Amino acid sequence: MALPRTADDPIDEERLDELVGMAVNELGAAYYAPLVVIGDRLGLYEALADGGPLSPDELAERTDTVDPYVAEWLAAGAAGGYVTFDPETGRYSLTPEQAALLADEDSPAFIAGGFQGLRGYQKNLSAIEADFRAGEGLGWHEHDEDVCHGTERFYRPGYSTNLVDEWIPALDGMDERLRAGARVADVGCGHGASTIIMAEAYPDSAFVAIDYHEGSIEVARERAEDAGVADRISFEVATAKEYDGADYDLVMMFDAYHDMGDPVGVAAHVRETLGDDGVWMLVEPNARDRIEDNLNPVGRAFYCASTLACVPNSLAQGGDPVLGAQAGEARLREVITEGGFTQVRRAAETPFNLVLEARP
């Protein structure tokens, strides 16, 4: 067992140098985060992917921006490895991999939405700091709109890639039921990305998109109209403990359950609204059960987001218990079964997602 360090203990200079180097790298990454949002909004990545290699003035001309800003923006991206610089020509470009990450919104690797969400969280830092002492919460609806839009853009590529092709077939018999025509509730639907993907894939099924945030439901309605599936989706503004309906064949929750203030009560309500052979599919961050097994880059990202958004939202709704984004399968299973479910199994997973199938 290691003894606690005292003020008289000598500093390991080599270890200190490592920490300083790590902190400088983190500081550069933190400064680059808002530049990702700027590049995404101004179309700089997209223009570079479509027309590169380009000099700073050429990229500025293509995007109706100003050369000095673009020159620094490009150099910052190249220093971080997000943009490629050719010193012989003075031009910049994106590799196919860099383009997939930052320029192609349909790519499963697209991550710019995560940076947009981070920008939204940062606008409430003072309130979250105060809540550290007060123990109060901050609901999703109280965040800047960048949080909702960024969250949708961050998760949607993974849903587009996996939901219909991998996750639904992993639920015993569900693909066939949906093709024949099933009743489905998407609880905590946000802007409706998951509902729309399902409605497009299963035109004979009927869907209800449910979220407690009226603004998100309004966006979801618009998105469904644009996608041509509004006739298959109805919308409801309600919490996960109070939504209407019964005899659902499938209830879905995507990266939302751990945010809820009364997860046991939510599980009990889902149990009441399912049909006799109904299924509850939960998609959650893929975390291990022990903290030490989550101390990695993915775990860090989710712990940070959980501190800024998930835990505050849970506390705003009562927080009993507060799960957090890294709850882990064992803790999720415990809460789900306490809510009345007798069968819970891991149906599928990706490096970022854990897909659970719960049955009464």
Brief characterization of the structure:
This protein is an alpha/beta fold and 360 residues long. 51% of the residues lie in helices and 15% in strands.
Describe the 3D structure:
The protein folds into 2 domains: 15-102, Winged helix-like DNA-binding domain superfamily/Winged helix DNA-binding domain (Arc Repressor Mutant, subunit A); 158-308 and 316-359, Rossmann fold. 51% of the residues lie in helices and 15% in strands. The protein has 14 helices and 9 strands. The chain has helices spanning 13-42, 44-51, 56-63, 67-80, 96-102, 112-122, 125-134, 145-167, 174-180, 193-201, 214-227, 263-273, 297-316, 329-338, and strands at 84-86, 91-93, 183-187, 206-211, 233-237, 248-254, 274-285, 343-349, 353-359. It has a 7-stranded mixed β-sheet with strand order 5-4-3-6-7-9-8, with helices on both faces. The protein starts with 12 loop residues before the first helix and ends with a strand.
